[in-house]
Design goal:
The complex is a heterodimer of chains A (about 230) and B (about 270). Chain A is about 35% helix and about 25% strand. Chain A starts with a strand and ends in a 5-residue tail after the last helix. By secondary structure, chain A is α/β, with parallel strands linked by helices. Chain A has helices at about 40-50, 70-75, 90-100, 105-115, 130-140, 160-170, 185-190, 210-215, 220-230, and strands at about 5-15, 15-25, 30-35, 55-60, 75-80, 145-150, 180-185, 195-200, 205-210. In chain A, a hairpin with a 2-residue loop joins strand 1 and strand 2. The longest helix of chain A is centred in the last third of the chain and has 14 residues, at about 160-170. Chain A is globular. Chain A contains 9 helices and 9 strands. With about 270 residues, chain B is mostly helical. Chain B has 2 domains: about 10-130; about 150-265, no CATH class. Helix content of chain B is about 85%, strand content about 0%. Chain B has helices at about 1-40, 45-80, 85-90, 95-125, 130-145, 155-180, 185-215, 215-220, 230-260. Chain B is globular. The model of chain B has no long low-confidence stretch (mean pLDDT about 90). Classes of the chains: A alpha/beta (about 230), B mainly alpha (about 270). The interface between A and B is medium-sized, with 26 and 26 residues.
């Protein structure tokens, strides 16, 4: 069974469609790039999958269930903004995640914090924006979830951290789990992706495996993206 | 999962509430000490300190209630409607659990603040007055105004205050949830809805109060005396409890629906 499935998924903000009759599926064990320009509907799709928005029409299911309390146990979500309470320190955050997510691997989180040289007694308030993003990503990736929904996970960090994060993503997930990465920094993630979904103005314009793109179109995902989304001069 | 939400909500609020209670007790002791000193020694400086300590004590007492209500409302807004909502609404918990956790914590601190204020008044006045005299004066005052109070009046009043606090917090939650369902001017709209809901609640309560007054026969058709009849007193308290329960249920349902269907985090 597909891990995530959208059928005719539509979301309108007022009269503006953010998603327009989207059909797509994500199978277990895949790393999928959700690629599209700003305002193409990536974040809207991910928010619906997390139950933060209700679709106007159509359905989205995770492991056969509509987004709700049960699917939230399966999904580990990294939003494009920092959601950490600034008064908390890292240890309190680890406690919080341990309490609410039985699949949270505290040892793995502590290991990553050490690797990125983040002190456990530091308060979020005292951290730079980049460090906050690192902490948040560590928390999200330390869960043994079925589906990781990562909205712009590498947007705000330096290239060295970016590499570490991407390595973390590949090494942390297992064969039953899938990762959906929304980004427009395609060159950085291209090498780890199994599949790509191109989305533009609320429509899925392409869903394909990276191998197919390389074989059939004879170009990289980055090149194909620039071609598909080329603006008229 | 509700217990875990409660645990973390108590943790998040205790760091502000506990120091507030220390301040209340501190201000009470300060007040008590300067009252005694100024009584014992005639001294201008001590008199100034006494007056200052009275103001500090009064401000601390009133402030503790303002901070309690303000912080509980702010927690709901900050934790659910701002970026923190991205974490809270993706936890494997239900929307009712999210509402109940905030409400239970808000009511706990409200009750503790009442107790802390009572403790503050007790400590502040300790040894300063003859309590027997104060109490008999108070009961004289009450019996003059209210006649013989029925035994059930004060407990009913306490229940009414509790239920109206519950209904107040739920009204605010509903106003915030409704205001934040819109794309722009979320905070302004929340404030507008708060005043609109309040106006609605007041209007309905007034209409029912008039009914109670009319049906409480002694008031209009009985002997004209200068005491308020007990049937009216009990009637208003019971009415208050009933109406506030209804308001609370309505605002709870509204909040729950809005958070489920119209959540619109920026």
């Amino acid at each position: 069974m597909a891990l995530l499935e959208c059928k005719q998924l539509t979301k309108n903000y007022g009269n503006n469609p953010a998603l327009d009759h989207v059909d797509l599926t994500i199978e277990p064990g895949r790393i999928v790039g959700l690629l599209g320009p700003n305002g193409s509907g990536k974040t809207t799709l991910i928010k619906i999958a997390n139950g933060l928005l209700v679709p106007t029409s159509g359905t989205l299911t995770i492991d056969g269930m509509a987004p709700g309390q049960e699917t939230k146990k399966l999904v580990s979500y990294l939003p494009e903004r920092t959601y950490l309470s600034t008064w908390m320190n890292v240890v309190q955050l680890l406690d919080f995640f341990c309490d609410f997510y039985p699949d949270f691997d505290r040892a793995a989180a502590e290991h990553m914090l050490t690797a990125l040289e983040i002190s456990p007694n530091l308060r979020i308030k005292q951290m730079s924006k980049g460090t906050r993003e690192k902490v948040q990503l560590i928390l999200v990736m330390s869960r043994k979830a079925r589906l990781y929904l990562l909205d712009e996970p590498i947007g705000g960090v330096d290239p060295a951290t970016r590499d570490y994060i991407i390595r973390t993503i590949i090494s942390n997930y297992n064969e039953q789990a899938s990762v959906l990465i929304s980004t427009h920094l395609i060159a950085d993630v291209e090498n780890v992706l199994d599949d790509v979904i191109f989305i533009n103005k609320g429509h899925v314009v392409l869903q394909s495996s990276v191998d197919e793109i390389r074989a059939e179109k004879n170009c990289s995902v980055d090149e194909l993206f620039r071609e598909v989304f080329r603006y008229a001069v | 999962m509700l217990s875990k939400l409660l645990k973390h909500e108590y943790r998040a609020t205790a760091r502000i509430m506990l120091p507030i209670y220390v301040l209340v007790v501190g201000a009470a002791l300060l007040f008590n000490v300067f009252m005694r000193l100024a009584d014992r020694y005639e001294n201008v400086a001590l008199e100034i300190f006494r007056v200052t300590s009275i103001s500090i004590f009064a401000i601390t007492l009133i402030g503790s209630f303002v901070v309690t209500a303000g912080l509980m409302v702010f927690r709901f807004y900050k934790n659910y409607m701002t970026d923190e909502g991205y974490l809270m609404f993706t936890l494997p918990v239900s929307v009712p659990q999210l509402i109940w956790s905030k409400l239970i914590v808000a009511m706990t601190w409200t009750v503790v603040t009442v107790l802390a204020a009572a403790l503050g008044v007790f400590l502040g006045c300790l040894g300063l007055f003859d309590w027997n005299e104060v109490l008999s004066d108070l009961s004289m005052f009450y019996s003059q105004i209210l006649g013989e109070l029925p035994a059930s009046y004060l407990p009913l009043m306490a229940v009414n205050m509790f239920v109206s606090s519950v209904s107040f917090f739920l009204l605010v939650y509903a106003a915030i949830s409704l205001g934040h369902g819109f794309a722009n001017r979320k905070i302004l709209l929340s404030v507008v809805f708060f005043f609109a809901f309040n106006a609605g609640v007041r209007t309905i309560s007034s209409i029912f109060s008039i009914f109670i007054a009319v049906f409480s026969e002694d008031l209009f058709f009985g002997d004209v005396t200068d005491v308020i009849p007990s049937s009216y007193l009990l009637g208003t308290q019971l009415l208050g409890i009933g109406l506030n329960l209804v308001f609370a249920v309505v605002f709870y349902i509204v909040t729950r629906l809005l958070l489920k269907k119209r959540l619109n985090l920026q």
